[in-house]
Amino acid sequence: MNWYTVTILGVGFPTLLLVLVASCIIFERLARALGYKQELNALGHDTWLLLFGFLFARFGFILQNWSYYANSPIDIINIRDQGFSITAALVPIFIWIAFKKRGNVRKIGILFIFVLSSVIGIVKWGQSTTQFERLFEQIDLKSFRMTRTDTELKTDHSKTVLLTALLEDAKEKNKAVIINLWASWCPPCRREMPALQMVQSTRDDAVIILINQQESEETIIHFFKENNLVFSHVYLDTQGSMMNNNFLHALPSTLYIDNQGNWQGIHTGELTQSALHAKIDSLIVQ
C-alpha cells in the first residue's frame, strides 16, 4: 500500500501512523458507546500488543523485501525510511483474539479491526480521488546536467524544462519516477544521496530526478564534487515552486509516480536504499 507523509510543524509523519492513532481514538469512543467499558479497562493489561504490532509491522516489511535489506543490513534499524507493513501489524492482534476466551473481549478485538479497516479505506479512497498532477503544471526547472571526466565535473545548464515534459517522457518509456526535493544544507538530504545514487545505477525501470530547492549553481557544484556524486537528472527549482505547490515544508521530500504516470504519494524524511528499491517495485504496474 502507498502512504503519503503528512507534514506537521516541519516534521513528517507517515499517514499510517496517523491512521493508527485515529483508529484507536474512534475505537475507544465506539466501544464505550456500545457498553464495553469493562473490557476496555482489561485491555490496559495488554499494552504489549502495541510493541508487538510495531515490531511485526517493521519486520514484516523487511521480510517482504529481504533481497534488498540483505544487501544493506544497516537499513534494518533505520526506521526513518518508514518501511512498515500494516498487514503484519495485525498478526499479533489476531493471535490475541484467538487466545482470548471471553466473548466480549474477542468482540472488541474484532471491533478494532473493523474500525481500522474502515479508516484505512476512507484514507485510501481520499488519496485515490485527489488530483495531484495539476500541481506540476507550469513548473519551470533549470537544467543542470552533469558529466564526469577524468579531471572535473562539468555542467550544462543552458535551458529550462517543464516537469510535466519529464514525466511524460518517463511514462512513454514505461518507467517509474522518483522526484527528490533537496538542498545541500539539509543533513538527511546529504545522508541519503549515496542511496539515491546507488539505486540510480542499479535500476533501469525508474528515473531518479533531483530537484534542488533555491540554491546557487556554485553551491551545488561544490556539493557534488566534494561528495563524488553524479546523477543523470538534476534540476534547479530557483523559485521553490515544487515545495510551495505541493504544500511541503520539510526536506528531503520524495514524490512518487508509477510507470503509468499516476501519482502514488509523498515521503518526507530520509530514505534508505532498501526502502527505495521496495518502493520502486510497488510503482511498476504490469
Characterization of the model:
The chain has 286 residues and is an alpha+beta fold. It has two domains: 125 residues, no CATH class; 152 residues, Glutaredoxin, CATH 3.40.30.10. The protein is 49% helix and 19% strand. The chain contains twelve helices and eleven strands. The strands form three sheets. A seven-stranded mixed sheet has the order 6-3-9-8-7-10-11, sandwiched between helices. It has a two-stranded antiparallel sheet with strand order 1-2. α1 crosses α7 and α3 crosses α6. It is elongated, with a radius of gyration of 22 Å. The two termini are 16 Å apart.
Total individual domains: 2
CATH topology of the largest domain: Glutaredoxin
Task: Please give the count of helices.
Answer: 12
Number of strands: 11
**CATH superfamily caption of the largest domain:** Glutaredoxin
CATH uppermost class of the largest domain: Alpha Beta
Pfam families: AhpC-TSA
Protein name: Thiol-disulfide isomerase or thioredoxin
Domain Thioredoxin: 135-285
Transmembrane segments: 6-27, 48-70, 82-99, 108-126
Kindly list the characteristics that best describe this protein.
286 residues; alpha+beta; Glutaredoxin; 2 domains; seven-stranded mixed beta sheet; two-stranded antiparallel ribbon; 11 strands; 49% helix
